[in-house]
Amino acid sequence: MKSSRPPSLVILTGAGVSVESGIPQFRNRHGLWTHVDYRALATPEGFAHNPARVLDFYNERRRAMGRAHPNAAHHALARLEADFKGDFLLVTQNIDDLHEAAGSRKLVHMHGELASALCEACGGRCRWPRDMTVNSVCPACGATGRMRPDVVWFGEVPYHMDLIQARLASATLFVAIGTSGNVYPAAQFVNDARRAGARTIELNLEPSLSSDDFSEALYGPATELVPAFVDRLLAGD
Ligand code: BJW
């Protein structure tokens, strides 16, 4: 049944949308958290315990991002944003910049960004496209050794939650692409959108942990699924 409310689309992307650009996911056989302990690398406690190790981990990922290019799924989502008639918000859990590189603009990074730094001394944020060390200096307050990657670790509050919750509350369509449904609050968004009466669709290589919560699902690689899905959506399907 089609909604009589004005069209409002919320798209949630996860690591799966960038896998075919050469950026690894977190939780499969080759995933980042399969080979390293996320408590050591993606918690405030891990950073306090060994900041140099955490900074190296993110330095390496920042360099890998610099070598990566957006794929057909990123490009298709930028085309959808440009041509969709209605409210549009792309919420990504990814800290890479591949959506922006493809042309997406109505975009929020709920788990932060690799190319941004956060100063623990003054709370300031700044663009940081290069390596970070335990001696890096904050350009805003001048403090040394207080810079960290501007990413959201376990136990921290994700960014842009007020905007995301407001859009989910009025969504007519919610689409989750390439996310495993392991991590909250993102894993809960499908239920928030359902409560708002939205049509909910999962696009993934395989069923996620939340797959039963979606009203529809399509399975396959994002670079094939997403362009075809965008064509259908813009054609009014
Ligand atoms: C393809 C594909 C292809 C592959 N094509 N698809 C107990 C119960 C409930 C919650 C909690 C709990 N205990 C603790 C919590 C909270 C905790 C949490 O969720 N823990 C779980 C482990 C249980 N959450 C938090 O702490 C969050 N904060 C929070 O809750 O604050 C409270 C609060 C919230 C809201 C308002 C007010 C207060 C913070 C979570 C931070 C997550 N951080 C990370 C690291 C970010 C920086 C970095 O990148 O290093 O975010 S962890 C990691 O997981 C990263 C990702 O964004 C996130 C999600 O992963 P994603 O994207 O789903 O990747 P994968 O690898 O899991 O899945 C990839 C998918 O792609 C798979 O499904 C594949 O099939 C698919 N795929 N190739 C299409 N080619």
Task: Write up this protein.
This protein has 237 residues and is α/β, with parallel strands linked by helices. The chain contains nine helices and nine strands. The strands form two sheets. A six-stranded parallel beta sheet has the order 3-2-1-7-8-9, sandwiched between helices. β4 (112-119) and β5 form a beta hairpin. α5 runs parallel beside α9 (222-234). The protein is globular and about 55 Å long. The model has no long low-confidence stretch (mean pLDDT 96). The structure holds ligand BJW. Ligand BJW is lined by residues 14-16, 19-20, 25-27, 31, 42, 93, 95, 111, 151-158, 161, 178-180, 182-185, 204-206, 208, 221-222.
SSE inventory with pairings:
Layout: E1 8-13, H1 32-35, H2 38-41, H3 44-49, H4 51-67, H5 72-83, E2 87-92, H6 98-102, E3 107-109, E4 112-119, E5 125-127, E6 147-151, H7 161-169, E7 173-177, H8 189-195, E8 199-204, E9 216-219, H9 222-234
Parallel strand pairs: 1-2, 1-7, 2-3, 7-8, 8-9
Antiparallel strand pairs: 4-5, 4-6
Largest sheet strand order: 3-2-1-7-8-9
Task: Please give the radius of gyration in angstroms.
Answer: 18 Å
Order of helices and strands: EHHHHHEHEEEEHEHEEH
Structural class: alpha/beta
Helical content stands at 25-40%
Ligands and ions found: ligand BJW
Per DSSP E runs of 2 or more residues, the count of β-strands stands at 9
Sketch the major β-sheet.
6 strands, parallel
Give me the number of helical elements: 9
Q: Provide mean pLDDT, rounded.
A: 96
Oligomer category: single chain
The low-pLDDT segments are none
Strand % is: 15-25%
Span of the ends, CA to CA: 12 Å
